[in-house]
Amino acid sequence: MRRMALGVAVILTAGLLAACGSSTDAGSTGASPTATPTPTPTPTPVSVVWAGQVCGDMDRVKSSVGSLGQNLSYDVTSDRSALEQIQRQLTVQVLGVGDAADRLLTTLGGVPVDFTAAADMVATLTKSGQDTKAAASAASGHLQAAASAGDVLTAVAEVGQAIIAAKAAYEAGQAFVGAIGTATSTASGELGEAFDASPACQSS
Question: CA-based angle 74:79:83, to the nearest 5?
Fold first, then answer.
């Protein structure tokens, strides 16, 4: 009887030890490693984002103004007259100047409300940009009139006026580009820091 009781006690003890051991193992294998927190990136200040947009639009203005009146040519073998060919080429160039000026004006008008350091620059460039856009619009109007003219003499006269207006647009655009360059290169303080911090402004 004592042997039977002792045997039962050994079996119960072994069972308890096994149960305890499996419980410990499960706890050790079930533990998950602590995840390393991902650092939150610092957001780009709105002033720097805006400065980058100004520089990008400024490059488009430079490019469009630089090409205005350049490389005008015509093909004598074409069915279209030389006048019509030049009128079409000049129309594309004038529209490019007007569109580039308009895009930059839109960006200038979207300056962050709390970025007061840019107020003077925005006012100066907006006036210069509006002059460029107005001159380009005048040239475009004459070119449209030439395209819809009912006779050659009227078309020639309108293209002549368009060329004069395009010259004015070129001069206004050059002044606009110069004003932009001066404003961005001489900017100081918070405004200068915004342009310096924008990658888009480093190649401008």
Answer: 45
Q: Could you read off the pLDDT of 118-168 as tens digits, one per residue?
A: 999 999 999 999 999 999 999 999 999 998 988 889 988 998 899 999 999
CA-CA-CA-CA dihedral for 173, 49, 124, 59, to nearest 10: -10
Cβ-proximal residues to 158 (8 Å cutoff; 6+ apart), any chain: 142, 143, 145, 146, 149
- Whether the Cβ atoms of residue 147 and residue 87 lie closer than 8 Å to each other: yes
- pTM over 0.90, yes/no: no
The pair of structure tokens assigned to 91 is 């129309």
Cα dihedral 77, 80, 84, 87 sign: negative
Of the CA atoms within 13 Å of residue 115, those in its CB half-sphere come to: 22
